[in-house]
Amino acid sequence: MSVTLKFRKSGHGYPFIILHGLYGASDNWLSISRKLEERFTVYVPDLRNHGHSPHTTSHSYEEMVDDLHLFFVDHHIEKAIILGHSMGGKVAMMFAAEYPELVKSLLVADIAPKSYNLLERPYKTVLQHELILGLMEQLNLAAVKSRKEIDHFMSDKLKDSTLRQFLIKNIHRNKADFFEWKINVPILKQALLAITTGVSSEWFDDRRPILGYPVTFLRGLNSDYISDEDLPMIKRIYPDAKIIDIPDAGHWLHAEQPAKFIEAVLSVV
């Protein structure tokens, strides 16, 4: 069942929709939105089980695509540029394949149309997600007095302080003044296999080649989410796709290199 997504809206002009990744929210895209709002009406929804959008009992790409379609209907959006990062990139790819008439241009940030959970070669990123959600589940937020305590708890297993601070942005105080996660930790943990395997190249087998709208992949050169070995597979699905590399950027390329990211986006829209 579709849910109504909370969102941020700014600017004037052609509709431009940004879809965040796992653990993300519209708040993470404020600086990027400000650069785009001079030319576009920018919508940044919180996907289900994230940010201020509803928590649900399930979390699948099909459901997120349905939520996004409802978003288009509710806001009378006839056609839009869609930019999706990580999990949001897979939502964007599936949505565009299902509703090509609603898509002017598709931009996919640092995610490939493939499974990241291969039994013969587990991706370290999948193992990291399992670790993160496990830590979130273990943490007794009712007993925590400060964000510093949360950071200390996570630092034993997560050495990357930038990643910890990104995750802690998902903490807020509820009406009883206790800390709680804004993301739906149990459901995301339950859905992790579907999140990491979904919208794989096999899903596109009866849909490729996709030629109905321009497609651009943006990849951080310090990230392993899109490898050189993935490029032939991407081209089989999207023969005309552009690949733009962002130097000195990892998976969170929009936060690590915002100026280069914006330059790349504006060069293709």
Task: Walk me through what this model shows.
By secondary structure, this protein is of the alpha/beta class. The chain has 2 domains: 7-115 and 199-266, Rossmann fold (3-Layer(aba) Sandwich), CATH 3.40.50; 124-190, no CATH class. The chain has helices at 30-36, 61-74, 87-98, 124-138, 147-155, 161-168, 185-190, 192-197, 231-237, 253-256, 258-266; strands at 7-10, 14-19, 40-45, 80-85, 103-109, 171-173, 179-181, 215-220, 242-246. A hairpin with a 5-residue loop joins β6 (171-173) and β7 (179-181). α2 packs across α3 (87-98). The radius of gyration is 18 Å and the shape is globular. The model has no long low-confidence stretch (mean pLDDT 95).
